[in-house]
Amino acid sequence: MFPDYHLHSFFSSDCDEKIENIISSAKNKGLKSICITDHYDMDFPPLPDNPDMTFDLDTDEYFNYMSDIRTKHMDDFDLRIGVELGVMEETCEKLNNYCSVHKEIDFFIASSHLVDGLDPYYPEYFEGKSDLQAYYRYFETILYNVKHFKGYNVYGHLDYILRYGKNKANNFNISDYKNLFEEIFKQIIYDGKGIEINTGSLYRGLDFAHPHIDILKMYKHLGGEIITIGSDAHDASHVGYGFDIAKNLLLDNGFKYYCTFKHQKETYNVID
In 29-149, which ranges are continuous DSSP H helix? Predict the structure, then answer.
C-alpha cells in the first residue's frame, strides 16, 4: 500500500477524527506510513452558515502533539507531519513566510479552496457563470498561485472545482484550459514541485480520482515526475481509499515512482 499523504484529523475545522483512529485504520489496511495534513487556510472568510469554521491552525501545538504520537508509534509505524495550505492570490507572500519559518513540517500541500473569496463548495460561486467560466477562473488562480507561492511541495486536488460544478465533469474538456494547464505545469516542474493523485473524489460523487486523467496525462507529458497519493480522508474509514485505482493510474500513464517527503525533501519510491 502507498503511504497516504492527504489526511485530516480533529485539528482541521471540518473534521473531528482522532489521530489514533487514523493510525489504527492505516495499520489494519497494511500501510506502514502516513502523513497527516491538517488544514490551514490563512485569512479564510467567515462562512454565513458556519462562522466557527475558521480553518486556523496553531502550528506549534499541532507539531508538538503529532511529534508525541510519532514517538509512541515509531517502532512499527512512520508518521509524517504535514499541513494542507489553502492558497489564495492575496495570501501567497504570507504563506511563503509561513513555510520558511516552519522547517519542522515534513510536507506542505497547496490547495485552492477559495476563488475571489468564495468556496466552490457553495452554489453561490457558480451564480451567473457557466461551468466553463467558473472553472476557467479557478484554474486561472492556480496559475497565479504557483507563480507566487513557492513554499509548497505538491499542489493538491488540482480540479477540486469539478466536484461542485452544475454539470461536474460531464462537459469538462481539457482543450478549454490547455494553455492554462501548460503554464501551470511548466511552472510546477521548473520549481521542483509536484501534484497529487487525490482519491477523495471517488467517495464524493465523481467516477475519477483528482486530477482528471487528461490533466494527469498532460502533467506527465510535460515532464512531471513528483507525485503523491492521498485519500483526503476526514474519517478513519477512508484512509487508503481507492489506492488500487491510483496505482493503475500511475502505471498506465508511465509513472514508475511515487514520492514521500521528510523535512520537505522528496524521496522517489518504486511502484511495485
Answer: 59-73, 92-101, 131-148
Q: Are residues 36 and 57 in contact, defined by beta-carbon separation less than 8 angstroms?
A: no
Domain contains 11? no
Digit-coded pLDDT (tens) for 216-231: 999 999 999 999 999 9
- 210-235 burial, b at 16+ Cβ within 10 Å, e below that, comes to bbbebbbbbbbeeebbbbbbbbbbbe
Say if CB 92 and CB 86 are below 8 A apart.
no
Listed residue (104, 57, 103, 116) closest to 84, CA to CA: 57
> How confident is the model over 75-121, as pLDDT tens digits?
999 999 999 999 999 999 999 999 999 999 999 999 999 999 999 99
Distance CA 94, CA 34 (A): 28
| Residue whose grid cell is 469539478 | 162
Find the CATH number of the domain harbouring 54. 3.20.20.140
Half-sphere exposure of 233 (CA within 13 A, CB side): 28
| Residue 207, all three cell numbers | 467516477
Residue 33 · residue 260 · CB < 8 Å: yes
> First vs last Cα of the chain: how many Å apart?
9
Answer yes or no: are the C-beta atoms of 227 and 258 closer than 8 Å: yes
Q: Is 129 left (phi over 0), alpha (psi -120 to 50) or beta?
A: beta
Cis peptide bond N-terminal to 211, omega within 30 = yes
* Residue 51 predicted with pLDDT over 90: no
Which residue range forms the structural domain that includes residue 100?
19-270
**How many H helices and E strands in the chain?**
7, 8
